């Protein structure tokens, strides 16, 4: 693997005084077999609780704002509508919700406002409505173009809509587009995935997320594998692909900035970057998580329960900065200004132990580290989980 040192890229710094908003829309056309997000398949058309849900997002926002010092003072610089399939809800509802957020919070001058969409919902008119609603970034859950693999994943497949993707990607009124692709499906060859990837690379998209298929507890897929009704992911092929992606993507002009995420220039997903750099965010909706004023919370994974008491979390815990920072920040392959994070979040004694682990990694050639600026080398990729665990327990 090649060195990924990016000496000209400025290092990531810890930031305070900014926050983000995540909204979880829990409905999809159908529930995919491998998916462990909180989501429910409702077929074609809108949910009959959609309007109620949008009212509840507002109620939850006001409740959280009344109780959060951070939310009252921080500038909002990212908003992300995820799910589920938020493109299944009407652009008018998103427009009204975004307007409400702008009235109730202090937005930065150039916020990133993203929405996730599935191919079946996309048309140029629909994307134009999303643009008019205020979105400036669209992330499309493609996964694969292969009908056999989509069927294996239990994903909804509309042949015309998948065929139409080319036209959508070439003419979308929203210019910042990302796609998600998946690899390592048991009956798919490495070449099938690379062909799919090459197809999308030709559109010069500014963001591409490349994930391996995983077995998530509680999903139909993991039950089917356990009962030998489905084959497990092809882990050997996943390792091979994981290893070849960084140099392949760099040759095609992409910056590798997180284990599974690539972007053109510096067009990172700024909202996701906030999760990896221990920044706060408000999470709204059933199944959403949030991180405000040093505490994490999770909302109930049940739409009915959420609608009865929007804003009443089902879990709450004080965050553990050392462990969380180790587990998230060190997934990034960008240069990181380590002292800014240690000074902001970590007690001095623990910081010393983390630094000595980084010294050890540098001595083994896993990273570039000068005592201030840190960046993984691609040699760290295949043992990243072990290296991160060492950092997380360095107390
Ligand atoms: S469309 Fe996305 S969120 Fe919905 S079930 Fe499938 S993977 Fe999960």
From TrEMBL:
Recorded GO CC terms: cytoplasm
Keyword Acetylation: no
Superkingdom, taxonomy of origin: Bacteria
Gene this protein is translated from: hemW
Residue ranges of every copy of the Radical SAM core domain listed in the record: 13-255
Phylogenetic placement of the source organism: Bacteria, Pseudomonadati, Spirochaetota, Spirochaetia, Leptospirales
Protein name, entry field: Heme chaperone HemW
Function comment: Probably acts as a heme chaperone, transferring heme to an unknown acceptor. Binds one molecule of heme per monomer, possibly covalently. Binds 1 [4Fe-4S] cluster. The cluster is coordinated with 3 cysteines and an exchangeable S-adenosyl-L-methionine.
Gene Ontology terms: biological process: porphyrin-containing compound biosynthetic process
Major location (coarse): cytoplasm
The keyword Cell inner membrane is assigned to this record: no
Subcellular location: Cytoplasm
């Amino acid at each position: 693997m090649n060195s990924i040192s990016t000496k000209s890229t400025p290092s990531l710094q810890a930031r305070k005084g900014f926050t983000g908003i995540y909204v979880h829309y829990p409905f999809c056309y159908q529930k995919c077999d491998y998916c462990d997000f909180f989501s429910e398949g409702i077929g074609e058309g809108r949910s009959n609780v959609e309007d109620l849900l949008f009212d509840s997002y507002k109620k939850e926002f006001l409740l959280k704002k009344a109780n959060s010092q951070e939310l009252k003072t921080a500038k909002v610089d990212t908003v992300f509508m995820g799910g589920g399939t938020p493109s299944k809800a009407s652009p008018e509802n998103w427009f009204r919700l975004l307007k409400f957020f702008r009235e109730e919070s202090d937005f930065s001058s150039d916020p990133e406002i993203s929405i996730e969409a599935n191919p079946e919902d996309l048309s140029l008119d629909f994307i134009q409505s999303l643009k008019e609603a205020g979105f400036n970034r669209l992330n499309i859950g493609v996964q694969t173009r292969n009908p056999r693999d989509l069927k294996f994943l239990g994903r909804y497949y509309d042949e015309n809509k998948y065929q139409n993707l080319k036209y959508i990607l070439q003419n979308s009124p929203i210019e910042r587009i990302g796609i998600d692709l998946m690899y390592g499906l048991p009956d798919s060859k490495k070449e099938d995935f690379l062909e799919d990837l090459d197809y999308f690379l030709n559109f010069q998209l500014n963001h591409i997320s490349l994930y391996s298929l995983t077995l998530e507890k509680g999903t139909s897929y993991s039950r089917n594998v356990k009962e030998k009704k489905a084959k497990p992911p092809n882990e050997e092929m996943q390792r091979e692909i994981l290893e070849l992606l960084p140099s392949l993507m760099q040759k095609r002009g992409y910056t590798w900035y997180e284990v599974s995420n690539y972007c053109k220039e510096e067009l990172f997903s700024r909202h996701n970057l906030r999760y990896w750099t221990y920044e706060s965010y408000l999470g709204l909706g059933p199944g959403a998580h949030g991180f405000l004023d040093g505490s994490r919370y999770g909302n109930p994974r049940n739409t009915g329960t959420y609608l009865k008491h929007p804003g009443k979390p089902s879990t709450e815990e004080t965050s553990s900065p050392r462990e969380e920072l180790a587990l998230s920040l060190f997934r990034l392959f960008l240069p990181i200004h380590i002292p800014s994070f240690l000074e902001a979040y970590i007690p001095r004694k623990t910081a010393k132990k983390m630094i000595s682990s980084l010294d050890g990694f540098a001595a083994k050639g896993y990273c570039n580290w000068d005592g201030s600026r840190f960046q993984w080398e691609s040699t760290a990729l295949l043992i990243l989980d072990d290296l991160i665990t060492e950092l997380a327990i360095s107390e």
